[in-house]
Amino acid sequence: MIPYGRQAINQQDIDAVLSVLQSDYLTQGPQVPAFEQAIANYCGVDYAVAMNSATSALHAACLALGLGQGDRLWTSPNTFVASANAALLCGAQVDFVDIDPNTYLMCPQALAEKLLQAKRDKCLPKIVMPVHFAGQSCDMAQIYALSQEYGFRIIEDAAHAIGGRYQQQPIGGCRYSDISVFSFHPVKIITTAEGGVATTNQKALADKLSLLRSHGVTRDPDLMSEPQQGLWHYQQVALGFNYRMTELQAALGLSQMTRLDEFVSRRHQLAQRYVAELKDSPWVLPYQTSDAYSSLHLFPVLVPQGVDRKQAYDQLRAKGLGVNVHYIPVHTQPYYQQLGFKKGDFPRAEAYYQRAISIPLHQGLTDDEQAYVIQCLRQLA
Ligand SMILES: *Cc1c(COP(=O)(O)O)cnc(C)c1O
Q1: How much is the pTM?
Q2: Residue 297 Cβ contacting ligand 1 at under 6 Å
């Protein structure tokens, strides 16, 4: 099977993990801060807080911004369930903003209209969470302008997007947001097996994220209510979790970071070939906006008009292509239907989903494998 996405591990990665195994610290040692520093440097952001997954980081990000009961978070229906779940885990309510039919990203016009209505109904969101689907940045300037007008905070779900850029700046720099979150799951751009990171330029948020990551416990004199009694002394000042990343994961991530740009340029090379060889075919290729440089986590194509998606999917799988579908609109999941959402609520995300197939695109895909993928797609249309 040629997978749609896959990690790329080399000897340097293996050596990095092995050396941690032989060191004094398997967790809470020097690798995590070093990895965080590498991310912060890369993104041009002041703080990076590593966690055991992006799901944890999104949850902690919502809590750090004070999301709780009676509050609302809006996100895109075209995402993995973790984006919306983060709000439910805080006891808040979730709603969605439909996608732009060309970019498959949260539509700024739909957001503006929904905000206008919500203002009248006195149910404005506390947080909006745009998702940089497939690695392409949302229209952050527009979303930020709306946040100034309506007073909401912004968390970028950048799970797909490390190595991508928006208006020439690295995604994760938080120029137009409070917090950005990356995922290091093996199908994403770089991996730590499981892992995620939250970035921010606000010290108070970074402190809060670090507290929530580790039981709400601190030894930082600035965060303690009385002077430290001795080196053993810590205080619990918030209710937190064990969301820590291990040293093994951080060492792998640090090693992977040295090849991040290489991974993303290989993805671009592969995407350019898909475009060159399929642009005259009836498959609809993903649209790239002019102000974004995508990390190209995914290459979602739409099946030709009149072709059944399930049939196409089954035929491609039978030919050995590990194609996948991103995403089943979150509001159509049974859990969300139970909360009152129904099919038809976000028609553009649903229409996109009906035709979408993610074809193989990852740094380890060979030219021969890609030629075979292209041949299979051509045979089908
Ligand atoms: C993968 C993913 C997540 C969750 O990441 P984990 O690190 O697996 O917890 C969240 N949001 C989106 C959009 C994702 O693709």
Answers
A1: 0.98
A2: no
